[in-house]
Every structure is written in C-alpha cells, then in structure tokens.
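Standup notes, protein team

Yesterday: finished cleaning the Pogona vitticeps set.
Today: Electron transfer flavoprotein beta subunit lysine methyltransferase structure.
Blockers: none.

Input for Electron transfer flavoprotein beta subunit lysine methyltransferase:
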Amino acid sequence: MIFKDCRRLLQVCGGDIIRKALKQKTQSSCSPWRCCHRLISGKPLDPEMRAFLEENTEVVNSGNLTPEIRLRLLTPHCRFWHDKTTLWPYGDPYWAIYWPGGQGLARYLLDNPKVVHRKSILDLGSGCGATAIAAMMSGASQVVANDIDPVAGAAMMLNCELNNVNPFPVITENLIGTKLEGWDLIVLGDMFYSEDLADSLHQWLKKHTIISGTKVLIGDPGRPHFVTHQIQRELHKVSEYCLPEATRQENYGSATTAVWHYQP
Ligand SMILES: C[S@@+](CC[C@H](N)C(=O)[O-])C[C@H]1O[C@@H](n2cnc3c(N)ncnc32)[C@H](O)[C@@H]1O
C-alpha cells in the first residue's frame, strides 16, 4: 500500500528522498519571484496529469482539522491504496497525505487570519497545499508554495480549484540554503522528519530569520527529529490541537499537533 510505503520511508529510511533533494545543487541567492523556470503557475494543468490525479485520488474534507478545506488525497477508496504500488508512475506521493503538522498550521491560520492578512506567505514543503490554501482564505496578499515534487504542484492546482481560491505559484526548486527576500511569514508543516533535514532547515532558518526578520511558524506533531533537536530551545508554542481519530490512526497514534513560533 503506497500510503504505508510513504510513512515507512519516513520512519525507517529517515527520508532518503529528502536527502537526495538536499544534494541537489542550489542557487546561492534566490528570490522566489526570479525562479520562474521551475515555477508552476498561470498555465493550465497538463490534461493527462489532471486526469491521473482525478482518477487516483478522492476529494476529502473530514478526518482532519480543517473541514472547510477540500483536498484530493489518497484514501482507502483509491486503487493505489492497497496494491498496484509498482505501477505508480511518480515518486512517493507525500503530497497525497494531509500531515498533522500542516493540519495544525492550516487550522491556526484559519482561526487567526490576522497572522496572514495582507501579508506575503511562503509555504515550504507544501505537499497538498492546505496551509497555503488556508493562508489564501485568510486574506494573505501573496502566497507561494514550495515543494520539490512537481506532482505536488499539480495536486495543489486541483486543490485550489476545489476551494475556489486563485491558484498560487508553486516553486519546485529546493530553496533550503538559498537567500530569500521579501516574505512576511514562512510556514513549514511536518518538515522535521529526518536528522539531516532538521539540521539544514535549522541552520537556514536561523540565518534567514536573523538577517531578514521574517516570521517563521512550524507545525509538528512531535516527531522524534523535532522534539530532540536543538531548535527546541528557540521555539515558542502558539497553539496545540487534538488530532481527529482518523489522523491519529494514520500517524501511529499521535494525539496532538502544535504550532510553534521560531524565535532564534
Ligand atoms: C511530510 S510532507 C508535509 C506536507 C505538508 N506540509 C503537510 O503538512 O501536509 C513533506 C513535503 O515536503 C516536500 N519536501 C521535501 N523536501 C523538500 C525541500 N527540500 N524543499 C521543499 N519541499 C520539500 C515533500 O515533497 C513533501 O511534499
């Protein structure tokens, strides 16, 4: 079952996909607005990709913390859920899961629109795009999603349509380590799931936050590489949520998720 494969990859392999991504050559300085060659926006979704995603996902708005957002996800009703995983033509579909970290962040932004109202938001590791969609719904002036998986970008476009929000740009560059400019807020949902990734994110966020003053919010259900990381000393918890039963079951019993303000 492809869904379990994703989680096993996270738990056992410690995120090989992420490590591979981090080895990619990154630009030394990158303003998101200049990374246009890897930016998915403003053009219609490839019809074949649209058909594939529509056929192999289910529209869901329950079992998570944000019933007001509809999302195309992989569920037990999808043909790739139980078998045929070898026929799945793309990389592991992390985007097809609405992770607890992203759920907490999206809930927080919907309940506290002032945090994003008229602000520019970067959602790093956006996955299904729910946190970015929540920022749009709460009145952000500019939202950009970033995910190294181009299929995630396509899924986000469908999810924008489902929620009647204007599609936002999706950058598929690996931005970690690059110089970013112009963001009021960076949000990261469930991105601290391997030691390497946690270290890289911490170093990068620290440098970026100190230089630019950008606010950073992190959503995480208490993954081992997050709770044991030195970043903990620089976090202030802003909100905590009980996870719905369906999300608990998908996440090995995690009962809560929290939103943290990163303040180095
Ligand atoms: C655990 S999922 C979290 C998705 C979403 N934030 C949520 O909470 O539902 C991690 C996502 O980060 C993406 N990702 C991994 N490494 C990345 C990187 N270096 N830059 C941007 N996205 C990355 C993956 O493709 C995946 O969609």
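Follow-up from PR in the comments: The longest helix spans residues 195-212.
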